[in-house]
Prior knowledge:
Layout: H1 3-21, H2 28-34, H3 39-45, H4 49-71, H5 81-98, H6 100-107, H7 115-142, H8 151-171, H9 178-189
Helix pairs in contact: 1-2, 1-4, 1-6, 4-5, 4-7, 5-6, 5-8, 5-9, 6-8, 7-8
Amino acid sequence: MPAGERRDQLLDAALEIIARDGYAAVSIDAIARSVDVTRPVVYNLFDGLDDLLYALLDRQERRSLAQLAASISLDVDLNDLGGFIARTIDDLIAMVTEDPSNWRLILTTSAATPAAVRARIDGDREWVRRRIRAGVDHGLRAGVLSPGLDADVVSHALIAIGEYFGRLLLDEPQKVERAALGNTVGALLGARSGSRNG
């Protein structure tokens, strides 16, 4: 197997072990066993477990941020804000359901999650929050959101809602009603579809 493919295979194996059994279960031996190779195969590509885990963290961060950037567009359709919100929620739901191992690591951190991972997730959450805040500011300036909304409070609230429903999607997907979620988020924002006052 070419080195690049083998590297991805080993990273995928580590991701699955962590998603299934937690960080305490991941080791060079566990990764090697899961793909039926010997330890030297792993050490030919990574200096050790820390090196492998940092490579995994870097790869998953790039993947997650790319997915989020595609799902949370800054090009808000002010003429159909309700539709824009519904499409964004559909995109976010698809993102989580199509890559559950990745999103389980992000949405279900615990005390056992290494500090470096938690710090990276916290930094990425703030990047997403600022992106949402920019969209809310845009909607407020255009007059399609309730004028009494505070963009910071709304961005924090939407992160909390998104993370809660993301965890629910991973554990009990049948409880997530797409239409109800979209309608409710729109109503909470006081979205007035097609109303451009500014």
